[in-house]
Design brief:
The complex is a heterodimer of chains A (238) and B (297).
Chain A: H1 2-7, H2 11-34, H3 48-57, E1 64-74, E2 77-86, E3 92-99, H4 110-122, E4 128-139, E5 149-159, E6 164-173, E7 176-178, H5 181-193, E8 201-209, H6 219-236
Antiparallel strand pairs in A: 1-2, 2-3, 3-8, 4-5, 5-6, 6-7, 6-8
Chain B: H1 4-39, H2 44-47, H3 52-65, H4 67-72, H5 79-94, H6 97-123, H7 125-134, H8 139-143, H9 148-164, E1 169-172, E2 175-178, E3 181-184, H10 192-209, H11 215-245, H12 249-256, H13 259-284, H14 287-296
Antiparallel strand pairs in B: 1-2, 2-3
Classes of the chains: A alpha+beta (238), B mainly alpha (297).
């Protein structure tokens, strides 16, 4: 008791020292021993291999036929570009996918970049964006009956001199999608606390439509491709 | 059994132990930041905080000059201090980069509150602010989606200037078309890094000149700094577009990726010194002088 009385004045210092020593023992010493720290290199998402394959080989969508697939440089990044055709129909669409490249790769609001570089690739003029709105749809993953995954997306009409498209864009994640990197960021931070990661794939769907028409008329069709793509991504790569 | 004299001497030993453990805890992290800032090998968001290379030593220096005042403060433990320490500890153990970084200001603030209470926090508030603002976080990443208006403004102004100089330039949103080439004003060209650095160095200058104690001086100087920073960034983007458009790729790379950019930022920061002196003199002018001027007009 005498010992405690004499050291009562120093209790805050001793408590702080004990806490810092605990941090040192459990947080730092393992790093000093191995020579590298956990915070230096985040671990890769569980599906890193599938994400790499996705960029090289494209996505297989049930009910849609792959006509063409290639890797394409847009802005500083490599996308997978594929042309798909609906089975038993003449409906075609272009699907651009940007899968996460490595553990440190983050979505960087590619949407403006995509618009700007489009002209470089095809020699077309830039997209003339009109009738922009945010859209929402949900998908039910295979095997799950009562869980719904919400996808928020950008939906608009993009017109060039030669062609008009209905465009749907979002970042796909295992639990849904969003056009802003914010939702991915917070989901990924949360996952990292549990020693996991949230993988992501940037998605842009281009559906040819009547020149300078009303984009709303294509919504049902666009939504059904959007659902098919999100479901296929969730079961194959995310 | 301990003699009273020995108990007294135990405190400096405890303090030394605490400082040593802190150094061991954060040396790898600080070295990682320094290495990343010097070699630009850290992530692009964390590079925004490279002003920490001058800010963190300055914070250390201020704390060191405050050490006598610190020792004279009566011991007082604020419970918030323990909460800060605990949160900082949890962040540290998470192993997640963003949160491990954030643990540093949390632990330091916690120690101030836990040892010397609110008075301790007040004494160390400026160095703590310098540490917090130099701690690499994801804030620039989260801001990037919202810089589009700034990017368009820079592209528009740069295009206008080049048009005035007789160049054939078209601006569309964030893209500048010049001589058959496109220059894109990307989110990370919006000048946020320069703005952050300017404000940070501005705070240091205000502290150094004592201007920080006057709200008027602080507001005026920081507003002028923002103006200088935004103007400098527009000029930089104009020069970049000019170099790219006239095919001077060497000059473009020098100013865009190499030490030209650093030299440009450093020159702009030097410009802050005459501005802080001017603000300091202008608002320190004795009151009667001001009223005389008023009478004269």
């Amino acid at each position: 008791m005498i010992f405690f009385d004499k050291h009562l004045k120093e209790f805050p210092q001793i408590a702080a020292l004990v806490l810092l020593l605990l941090l040192l023992a459990f947080g730092t010493v393992p790093g000093y021993l191995v020579g590298r720290w956990q915070w230096q290199q985040p671990q890769p998402p569980a599906t890193m291999k599938q994400l790499r394959q996705l960029r090289q080989q494209g996505l297989t969508i049930p009910g849609w036929q792959n006509m063409k697939q290639e890797e394409m440089q847009i802005g500083g990044r490599k996308w997978s570009m594929q042309v798909v055709k609906k089975e038993n129909s003449q409906q075609e669409a272009i699907l651009l996918l940007l899968p996460q490249k490595d553990p440190k790769d983050q979505p960087q609001v590619e949407w403006t970049e995509l618009n700007g570089w489009w002209s470089d690739i095809y020699g077309w003029q830039r997209w003339d964006v009109a009738q922009f709105r945010s859209a929402e749809f949900s998908v039910t993953p295979q095997g799950a009956t009562n869980s719904e995954n919400k996808v928020q997306a950008r939906f608009f009409r993009a017109a060039t001199k030669t062609q008009t498209f209905a465009v749907l864009q979002w970042y796909a994640m295992p639990n849904g999608g969003d056009p802003s990197p914010w939702r991915w960021f917070f989901s990924d931070q949360l996952a990292q606390w549990g020693k996991k990661r949230t993988p992501w794939v940037g998605v842009t769907i281009l559906l040819p439509m009547e020149p300078l028409g009303k984009v709303e008329t294509t919504w049902d069709e666009v939504q059904s491709i959007g659902k098919a793509v999100q479901t296929a991504l969730m079961s194959s790569s995310l | 059994m301990l003699l009273p004299g020995q108990v007294k001497r135990a405190t400096p030993l405890l303090q030394l132990a605490i400082v040593s453990v802190l150094v061991l805890l954060y040396a790898p992290i600080l070295l990682h930041w320094l290495d990343g800032w010097l070699k630009k090998s850290i992530s692009i968001e964390h590079e925004y905080f490279s002003h920490g290379m001058i800010g963190l030593p300055f914070a250390g220096y201020i704390s060191w000059t405050n050490r006598k005042k610190w020792q004279r403060l009566p011991d007082a433990s604020h419970p918030l201090g323990f909460i800060c320490l605990l949160l900082g500890g949890i962040f540290y153990l998470s192993g997640v980069s963003e949160w491990v970084n954030l643990s540093l200001p949390f632990i330091l603030t916690g120690l101030c509150l836990w040892f010397k209470g609110i008075a301790g926090l007040k004494l160390q508030k400026f160095p703590l602010l310098l540490v917090l603002l130099a701690t690499p976080t994801a804030i620039p990443y989260l801001l990037a989606p919202y810089t589009l208006p700034l990017q368009s403004f820079i592209a528009g102004t740069a295009g206008f200037i080049l048009n005035q100089l007789g160049m054939d330039v078209t601006v569309d949103g964030i893209n500048i078309y010049v001589g058959g080439k496109i220059v894109e004003v990307a989110p990370y060209c919006a000048g946020l890094k320069m703005l952050f650095t300017t404000l940070y160095v501005g705070l240091m200058l205000l502290y150094w000149t004592g201007g920080i104690n006057s709200r008027q001086k602080t507001i005026w100087f920081l507003s002028l700094s923002i103006l200088v920073s935004v103007t400098a960034n527009i000029i930089r983007n104009t020069l970049l577009t000019f170099f790219h458009g006239t095919g001077q790729e060497g000059a473009f790379t020098w100013l865009h990726d190499s030490w030209g950019g650093d030299l440009y930022s450093a020159s702009m920061l030097l410009l802050l010194i005459p501005i802080v002196n001017w603000v300091d003199n202008y608002f320190s002018a004795p009151m009667h002088q001001e009223s005389e001027i008023e009478k004269g007009t």
